[in-house]
Amino acid sequence: MARISLWFALGAALTVVPIAVGQANPEAIAARQWRQQHERTIVDEFFGLLAIPNIASDRVNIQRNAEIIAKMMGQRGVPARLVSVPGANPIVFGEIKTPGATRTLVFYAHYDGQPLDPKEWATPPFTPTLRNGMLEKDGQSIALPAPGMPFNPEWRVYARGAADDKAPIVAMLTALDAIRAAGLRTKSNIKFAFEGEEEAGSVNLEKILAANRELFSGDLWLMCDGPVHQTRRQLIAFGARGATRVDITIYGPRGELHSGHYGNWAPNPAMLLAKLLASMKDDNGRVLVEHFYDEIEPLSDLEKRAIAEAPSIDEDLVKEFWLGATDGGPAKLTELITLPSLNIRGMASSRIGPQASNVIPATASVTMDVRLVKGMDPRRTAERVIEHVRKQGFFVVESEPSAQIRMAHPKIAMIPRPGGDAATRTPMDLPISQEVIRVVESVRGPAVKLPNMGGGLPLTSIERPLGTRTIVIPMGNHDNNQHSFNENLRLQNLWDGIELMAALLTM
Length: 507
Fold this sequence. Notes:
It is built from 17 helices and 21 strands. The chain is α/β, with parallel strands linked by helices. Helix 14 links the parallel strand 16 and strand 17.
């Protein structure tokens, strides 16, 4: 994926701000000094963790990841255990009890990663590689500097999980090293919860938390996942969009038919699917599914003001992503991510390119995700999409249709019963929310504060069983190829994250 860096002119100037502001924060100072003296050790530990494959379905290596993280915590005097329920990947739990503390902060990250095809990667995804710049800008693989030699903060680490989401784990544990070496202490009880199924939909997270409420209870969960703002300013998101998945398969002939012999006669399921999908959105990207926007909970005045005050980066991103137009205009990206979306994740029908055959396909399939905002029910929203399919003339089934059913209906769509997770937002004016803002800005300078991030996190699966609040504090670079091939982390983001975690751990 060729990309042009948004910051070829402005990046260096903008990264000066948080460093200068951070001088006022003693925890950030301690973390920076520790990091400067131990950069090679930090990166070595990071590389060791990244070298363990972490696809959620790979149970053997997921277990290895969990055990290594627990060992890393134990080496720092943090008692750790693996917590699970039958059939689930473990959560790595750790706890620091602070005498006299009146509240508990829980720090969340996940150690599993998205599935991948190694052939798409420039270097093996589980062989961490240091490059002297972005791969898309001809960054070359380089050896690690000798111990005691500094790392260029613009160098990048390429590996699955580098940005999403093993870096925060290393940042938290390194921050512990730094504050302890400086004689600084935690003021709150601290808990760590590192999940192993986030990229698989956190299907067991709520079950694990509900079965271990006392263990995971806390006044606030700090969700350390995702990228910072595209301006490289720190992002604080007070919620995340939920999601539901809708899979649709359209049926044509029993098997593929010769397109010359049967074209114009046998219905083409790929064409039927294309027409169906085109009926779901207008030319400006607004979803046309009836009642799709009905249940949205309005933003508060404070949330609206935060959106208005957020820097506009649309023009720069259009250039970076080579876009000829955007959806949703005249609204900007920061406003549009507070609305629900309907996205085509991928489509398939027969074969393309050199493998293409002169056929009418037998089936055509699509996987869609619907991003939900607060107020929307996942199942009800999915049902509205399914009802839209029916209104386009399709007979809808939940499992593979029989020959009799296929011959009884001119258009058939198989849509398995969808699930999903709702969205939530923590009020920005709560005392704990304002405290988080003050601490973050004492380290990283003026933050971009948004009601919710665009991506999804299992916030509802945490808040519902525990009765707690969640705030998202990401640390990855926005151009990290998250969920795609050649995922990477800019080293300065790791350095910044260590300083930020030190301040949050001691707030």
